[in-house]
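Schema walk-through. Below, the input block comes first and the output block second. Nothing else is stored per chain. Lengths vary across the set, and this one has 291 residues.
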Amino acid sequence: MLTVAGLLMSGVTPAHAAPVVQRVADLSNVQISYRERGKGRPVLFVHALLLDSRLWTDQLNALCETRRCLAPDFSGHGNSSHLTATKVDSKRYAAELLEFLDAVGVREPVDIVGLSGGGNIAMLACAQRPERCRSMTLISSVIGGTLDPAGVRYRAENARTVVIEGKDTLFRRFNEYIVAPSASLTARARYRSMLEQTPYETFVAFLTAAEQQPAASEVLPKLRMPVMIPVGTGDTVLTPEMAKKIGAGFSNGRVVELASAGRLLPLESPAELNTALGTFWNELDSGGSRP
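--- output ---
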């Protein structure tokens, strides 16, 4: 069941596309807030954990003329239901994505775009239901692996920091390496706004989870759809060299480098990312990039 909130979002309206609208989808256990714009083949944008669907504002505005762009907020993020679990569970979020597609009436395979942990969740969803996914675009998403003890301690320290000292302290820490030095003040401002409006409980659930991601050997054989991995040359978390190694693991993968940008490509280099996405999808529309 869908409930239309009727809240029109700001932004430049293309000549042939209605403005972004914010809606609510009722799932079995949660309400999911989402942004939608445009008509055509469905595209599902999956935000990184601790952020929300505002991450994709520039993509919804630029790609809506020929695509039905959908950007949900995970539970515990944005305007969706608050998180009730004490630990973030990527598999539960993957199930949430699949149920969301059913709730909003998407029947054909989607082109899915995910950032960081959102990309990992997208992979889990597509591995579980490959027929629901025409293609994947993964931005700064590491496949497999677990946190070492030092990583677990670092995240636990960040959880305590955000609760005791506030989100501003954590933003200052993340801002040093998440975005490239050349990132605009506007990009940093939207990043900070999303962090500040994420509930403290979600920060703690994410930073103390330390969950083990499925091994590459478990997931990759199920992901035979075309995969694009855009990477910023200024990304210090997942470097272009790391992206190439990840791309080589897919049967039909490609890596596209975007100059100067860091990890937050949708904010730092929106025009370049939009061009890469449009080119990728247009090639698929014409029958290219098949395994």
